[in-house]
């Protein structure tokens, strides 16, 4: 039986195992796959020019990027993995952030949230393969691009084979390498590939690509016990670092400016990648290790909502399908879940949220683009012919097969199986919103057909792309061609012997003795039976509702099964299915009433359980199972933060008379290896003294000449930083910061002439927005200092500073809080004292609210506690929400939840006002401590305009139990100052 279908969006086909197909001949030269390659170290992960293979079986690696360190709640990894798996993906790619594992040189830690093992274990539990990307460089919009702070004062050019650099990375690579190696698939773990470096593509002149570095780095990987194939992600298909096993590249074709998300460049769709891949590594599969799944946003940016539009369903349809048109068989979407730059993770170009506009939002809810991507992943998961395909007309697509020059059609043929064709149609002008109508002249096994064969035409509306298949095996039926797109196919006996549910008109025509054409005009869902084949003709909204799940088998890889699919329609998210005897259990999440349709073998679905409760089953008109289930969404009452009792303390005692900075670090270095030469008598780079994150405070002691009238400083802090200056107890001004400057020179007038010989202190509080990345190898740009680059006094006779003192976080590289890691706290007095931590005794503090604030320049610290009592069986994500203050707008605020910094808010720069805080950081059943710092940069003080705890979604959920991260309480901090 051959079928052809017209004019609908999606097709879900169920074909009888009993049906016999007869295939017509089609002349096509057969290209056999070349000998399978492996790297000689293992034979589980192998590959050839078409695809990766695991245990000899080809697979489309459909992967999404997730960063474990951007989600410190270890018990939430499974939720993310299950959501990715339910989308039809089989892999996750992840970075490891060296800087948080080795904050002090030689002291490597994988404690607490930094432990990778729970991440590995959760992947295995969800049936997700892992692509490990331990750097040492990662970029990733992290502070220093992943490099540790101490790198800024380590000599030698980084990202080269320079010995000092190679010595610096050795301990980390060997340790992380061994941890990944223990979790390789060769040892029963989920890791299938390991990436060396990151975008080793641009090298700062006069240096060039350092092949010796590649060699030594790969050797370090091997020395640590890694045996799976090595990969690297070139920033574009430029042929760098090809000595890895499987070279691949990255692409972000819609860029990172989210402010005009509906505007695409007319030539935005990259067509040259196939040619480049053929030129660089034709012997390997076409692998894309990062393809745009969203965009990062920076200080003063547009926020992430428009980034999700820029890279929304239309983008996925057009740009991802263009990659399929180039036979991409390893496809990693960056990001699939962005997460949070909590603590000091962010680079200066980013704020707390790393939502990225990705398919899974920062609060772990699913965007529409999730459902679109689910259609694509499910289609390719059941299209083995794609895995041995080649594009045929890559430079000759315009007007091809349609005769319409407004369209480009790529013919992708299975050159090994010699049967199936994929025709990817898209707009010639990617920027257009025009409707194009077309017909296709396609070669098929029964000759060239003009499609639609029953007359009429097809349509492509605006920013869209479609894949039409030809001679496509659907079970044992062959689909001769489709004008619809295929969602999934499975082999089960059709439930009834006759046709139809749904509305619409269907025409049919016999094309050959065993070929029948169907042409239809339907809405919603229409089910058609032809012979022993059942077709679901679906519009997009209906297609979005289908889930293809695989019951676990047995053994260590039980959850990786791709056999025995169960198809269920309905629900916000269906995570997994299992079968026991004749009972089918479904685990899923609902946000309203679900109308389920269950397509499963009758013998194993006599009864159906959803989240532990039996469903009342009925039969659909076409014989599948149906059930309704209302979401259980209990009401909750959230604390009103503004009516809680808040405590207040001044967090800038440094400006009080008599304050002693005796315990502070003396900034007394006379030289630095930092490539930026200081213009100060002593080095005033915070990093040189071991302070790499958060607020930094400088103190300059001098004796007045009597003629000084002002102080000038050039301070560097990274984009959107600010600084405030006090002369003794008097505020003399701020550079409050903007979205542009990463350093700024300003002059601050003294309020009066000082008495000659009198002793004074200048206190400079500055923000540190994270270190720059090091995108250009050998550039050492991450070493760009944070601190004071130059200073001077104004006056006839200027004083000299006798002593400079500096502090950042308590302990510097020997950070105090082992639970929350090296980047969580900065150098504010309150942070050094641990005021942000649960259990700190604030009984003697005054009463005062952050929404009342402080009335002069300075820093205030606020604390409160509240209880939560959230119901079980739901996923109710919460956010802290602030609103913009227009009176006294110049201020910076940090939000601490149970000691974890989950918000850095700069009122006058923005854009973020909603700060998601995951369950596990928030204690959903018990006490929570909320602390807020406010640094008023203006002389009239500052306050939060509002602060609230808000639900961002309500879902009944089968999410696994969430265990709080350690919410370690305050303990005395010996030596704290
Ligand atoms: C590419 C990096 O590899 C990745 O770490 C991340 O920074 C991403 O971009 C952007 O979010 S770099 C690419 C834009 C050239």
Automatic annotation (TrEMBL):
<dbReference type="InterPro" id="IPR036833">
    <property type="entry name" value="BetaGal_dom3_sf"/>
</dbReference>
<dbReference type="InterPro" id="IPR025972">
    <property type="entry name" value="BetaGal_dom3"/>
</dbReference>
<keyword id="KW-0326">Glycosidase</keyword>
<dbReference type="GO" id="GO:0005975">
    <property type="term" value="P:carbohydrate metabolic process"/>
</dbReference>
<dbReference type="InterPro" id="IPR018954">
    <property type="entry name" value="Betagal_dom2"/>
</dbReference>
<feature type="domain" description="Beta-galactosidase">
    <location>
        <begin position="386"/>
        <end position="546"/>
    </location>
</feature>
<keyword id="KW-0732">Signal</keyword>
<dbReference type="Pfam" id="PF10435">
    <property type="entry name" value="BetaGal_dom2"/>
</dbReference>
<feature type="signal peptide">
    <location>
        <begin position="1"/>
        <end position="19"/>
    </location>
</feature>
<dbReference type="InterPro" id="IPR019801">
    <property type="entry name" value="Glyco_hydro_35_CS"/>
</dbReference>
<dbReference type="Pfam" id="PF13363">
    <property type="entry name" value="BetaGal_dom3"/>
</dbReference>
<dbReference type="InterPro" id="IPR008979">
    <property type="entry name" value="Galactose-bd-like_sf"/>
</dbReference>
<dbReference type="GO" id="GO:0004565">
    <property type="term" value="F:beta-galactosidase activity"/>
</dbReference>
<dbReference type="Pfam" id="PF01301">
    <property type="entry name" value="Glyco_hydro_35"/>
</dbReference>
<keyword id="KW-0378">Hydrolase</keyword>
<comment type="similarity">
    <text>Belongs to the glycosyl hydrolase 35 family.</text>
</comment>
<dbReference type="InterPro" id="IPR025300">
    <property type="entry name" value="BetaGal_jelly_roll_dom"/>
</dbReference>
<keyword id="KW-0325">Glycoprotein</keyword>
<dbReference type="InterPro" id="IPR017853">
    <property type="entry name" value="GH"/>
</dbReference>
<dbReference type="InterPro" id="IPR037110">
    <property type="entry name" value="Betagal_dom2_sf"/>
</dbReference>
<dbReference type="InterPro" id="IPR031330">
    <property type="entry name" value="Gly_Hdrlase_35_cat"/>
</dbReference>
<protein>
    <recommendedName>
        <fullName>Beta-galactosidase</fullName>
        <ecNumber>3.2.1.23</ecNumber>
    </recommendedName>
</protein>
<dbReference type="Pfam" id="PF13364">
    <property type="entry name" value="BetaGal_ABD2"/>
</dbReference>
<dbReference type="InterPro" id="IPR001944">
    <property type="entry name" value="Glycoside_Hdrlase_35"/>
</dbReference>
């Amino acid at each position: 039986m051959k079928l052809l279908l017209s004019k609908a969006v999606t097709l879900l086909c169920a074909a009888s195992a009993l049906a016999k197909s007869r295939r017509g001949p089609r002349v096509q030269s057969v290209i056999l796959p070349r000998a399978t390659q492996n790297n000689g170290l293992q034979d589980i992960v192998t590959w050839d020019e078409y695809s990766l293979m695991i245990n000899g079986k080809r697979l489309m690696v459909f992967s999404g990027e997730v960063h474990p360190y951007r989600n410190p709640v270890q018990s939430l990894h499974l939720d993310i993995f299950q959501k990715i798996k339910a989308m039809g993906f089989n892999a996750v790619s992840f970075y490891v952030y060296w800087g948080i594992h080795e904050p002090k040189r030689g002291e490597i830690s994988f404690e607490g949230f930094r432990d990778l093992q729970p991440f590995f274990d959760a992947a295995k539990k969800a049936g997700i393969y892992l692509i490990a990307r331990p750097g040492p460089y990662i970029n990733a919009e992290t502070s220093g691009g992943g490099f540790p702070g101490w790198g800024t004062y380590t000599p030698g050019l980084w990202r080269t084979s320079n010995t000092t650099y190679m010595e610096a990375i050795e301990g980390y690579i060997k340790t992380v390498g061994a941890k990944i190696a223990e979790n390789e698939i060769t040892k029963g773990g989920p890791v299938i590939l390991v990436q060396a470096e990151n975008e080793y593509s641009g090298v700062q002149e006069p240096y060039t690509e350092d092949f010796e570095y590649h060699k030594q780095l790969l050797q370090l990987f091997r020395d640590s016990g890694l045996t799976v194939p090595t990969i690297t992600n070139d920033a574009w298909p430029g042929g760098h670092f090809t000595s890895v096993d499987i070279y691949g590249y990255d692409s972000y074709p819609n860029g990172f400016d989210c402010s005009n998300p509906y505007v695409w460049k007319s030539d935005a769709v990259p067509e040259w990648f196939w040619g480049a891949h053929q030129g660089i590594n034709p012997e390997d599969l076409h692998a894309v290790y990062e393809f745009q799944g969203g965009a990062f946003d920076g200080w003063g940016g547009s926020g992430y909502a428009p980034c999700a539009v820029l890279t929304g369903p239309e983008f996925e349809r057009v740009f991802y399908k263009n990659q399929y048109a180039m036979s991409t068989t390893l496809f990693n979407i960056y990001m699939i879940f962005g997460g949070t730059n909590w603590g000091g993770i962010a680079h200066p170009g980013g704020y707390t949220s790393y939502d990225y506009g990705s398919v899974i939002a920062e609060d772990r809810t699913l965007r529409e683009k999730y459902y679109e991507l689910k259609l694509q992943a499910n289609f390719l998961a059941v299209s083995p012919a794609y895995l041995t395909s080649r594009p045929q007309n890559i430079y000759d697509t315009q007007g091809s097969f349609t005769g319409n020059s407004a369209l480009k059609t790529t013919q992708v043929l299975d050159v090994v199986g010699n049967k199936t064709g994929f025709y990817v149609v898209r707009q010639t002008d990617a920027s257009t919103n025009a409707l194009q109508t077309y017909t296709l002249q396609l070669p098929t096994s029964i000759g060239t057909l003009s499609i639609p064969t029953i007359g009429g035409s097809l349509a492509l509306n605006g920013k869209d792309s479609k894949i039409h298949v030809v001679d496509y095996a659907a079970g044992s039926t062959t689909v001769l061609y489709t004008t619809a797109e295929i969602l999934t196919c499975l082999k089960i006996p059709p439930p009834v012997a006759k046709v139809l549910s749904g509305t619409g008109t269907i025409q049919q025509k016999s094309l050959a003795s065993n070929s029948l054409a169907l042409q239809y005009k339907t809405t919603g869902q229409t089910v058609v039976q032809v012979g022993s084949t059942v077709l679901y003709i679906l519009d997009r909204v209906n297609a979005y509702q289908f889930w293809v799940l695989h019951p676990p088998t047995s053994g260590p890889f039980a959850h990786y099964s791709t056999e025995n699919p169960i198809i269920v329609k309905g629900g916000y998210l269906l995570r997994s299915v299992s079968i026991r005897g004749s009972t089918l259990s479904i685990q899923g999440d609902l946000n309203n009433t679900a109308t389920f349709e269950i397509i499963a073998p009758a013998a194993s679905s006599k009864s159906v359980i959803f989240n532990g409760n039996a469903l009342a089953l009925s039969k659909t008109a076409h014989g599948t199972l149906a059930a309704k289930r209302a979401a259980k969404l209990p009401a909750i009452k959230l604390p009103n933060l503004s009516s809680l009792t808040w405590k207040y303390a001044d967090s800038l005692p440094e400006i009080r008379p008599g304050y002693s900075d005796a315990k502070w670090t003396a900034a007394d270095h006379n030289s630095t290896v930092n490539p930026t030469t200081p213009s100060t008598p002593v080095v005033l780079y915070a990093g040189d003294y071991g302070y790499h994150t958060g607020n930094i405070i400088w103190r300059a002691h001098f004796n007045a000449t009597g003629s000084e009238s002002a102080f000038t400083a050039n301070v560097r802090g990274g984009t959107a930083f600010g600084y405030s200056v006090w002369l003794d107890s008097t505020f003399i001004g701020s550079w409050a910061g903007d979205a542009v400057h990463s350093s700024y020179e300003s002059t601050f007038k003294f309020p009066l002439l000082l008495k000659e010989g009198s002793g004074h202190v200048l206190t400079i509080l500055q923000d540190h927005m994270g270190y720059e990345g090091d995108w250009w190898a050998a550039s050492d740009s991450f070493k760009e200092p944070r601190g004071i680059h130059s200073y001077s006094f104004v006056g006839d006779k200027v004083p000299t500073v006798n002593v400079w003192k500096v502090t950042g976080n308590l302990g510097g590289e020997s950070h105090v809080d082992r639970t929350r890691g090296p980047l969580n706290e900065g150098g504010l007095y309150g942070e050094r004292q641990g005021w942000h931590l649960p259990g700190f005794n604030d009984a003697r503090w005054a009463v005062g609210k952050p929404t009342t604030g402080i009335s002069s320049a300075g820093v205030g610290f606020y604390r409160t506690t509240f209880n939560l009592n959230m119901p079980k069986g739901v996923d109710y994500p919460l956010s802290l929400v602030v609103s913009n203050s227009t009176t006294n707008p110049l201020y910076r605020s940090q939000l601490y939840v149970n000691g974890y910094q989950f918000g850095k808010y700069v009122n006058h720069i923005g854009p973020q006002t909603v700060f998601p805080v995951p369950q596990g950081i928030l204690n959903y059943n018990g006490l929570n401590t909320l602390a807020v710092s406010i640094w008023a940069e203006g002389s009239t003080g500052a306050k939060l305009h509002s602060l609230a705890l808000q639900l961002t979604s309500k879902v009944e959920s089968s999410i696994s139990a969430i265990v709080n991260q350690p919410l370690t309480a305050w303990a005395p901090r010996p030596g704290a100052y």
